[in-house]
Amino acid sequence: MKHILLPTDFSENSWNAISYAINLFKDETCTFHLLNNYMPMVYNVEYVLGYPAQFGLVDAMRNSSQVNLESLIKRIDKQFKNNPKHSFDTSLSLDNLVSGIQEFILKRPVNLIIMGTKGATGAKEVLFGTNTVDVFQKVKCPTLAIPSGFQFEPLKDLLFPTDLEVPFKNTELEIVADLVKKHKSKIHALHILTGTNVTLTQARNKLELESLFEELPFVYHEINNDSVTDGINSFQKDNKINVLIMCNNKHSFFENILFKSKVKQIGFHIQIPFLVIHSKN
Residue ranges of the alpha helices (H) in 184-241? Predict the structure, then answer.
């Protein structure tokens, strides 16, 4: 059984991600964990203790979240007709999004987080808001971000750009292999040459990557481009890609630069689900 964590703020954006998740795993036995993190905009434990009346505000928010979670379960039941393979539970957390998720996955097994995301207001070049990027960086669990308004489509082609600088044996590629198997997908590994030749380390890591996917539909691409970002965007324009996959590894120059830049470099052209995986150590 898979355990899928679905953070929700009860927006249509998060509903869209929930719908995507249910469709993605429609043929698999899953427990979906609906998690709402609620916290007053101004919340200080010492302040609340000094002014007990403030407990009323927290209680009211908790009660409201509980009612919304119950309504969400009813909406899921109505739209998806009680898939016998799926079960749902609900959780509330008086915490911010990242800390609430971190606490949850410490207590329960979670295979994948699926969450909605939308660009920061007034910044068209940024697909991912601060909350999403914070989850990518700080939560060590595979996370699939679904762009606002994106409707589920079959996972025929998955794109995995890599600089081949980090060995893959300690990377959480199982989730990728599982998606490829279950959805009969093809994985496209993309290495972008920016004017330098492939090193011995990169060649060795390429062989390791090919070995990991040797029993699955796997294609390795190597293209020349002075810009990694332009290379990724160009490949997506020329090929119909359903999910973009990247590895967040602090030892990899390529991925480290991407995430330090808050994903702004690639966000402008990405309008497809984005899966972020991590190293195991």
Answer: 200-212, 228-238
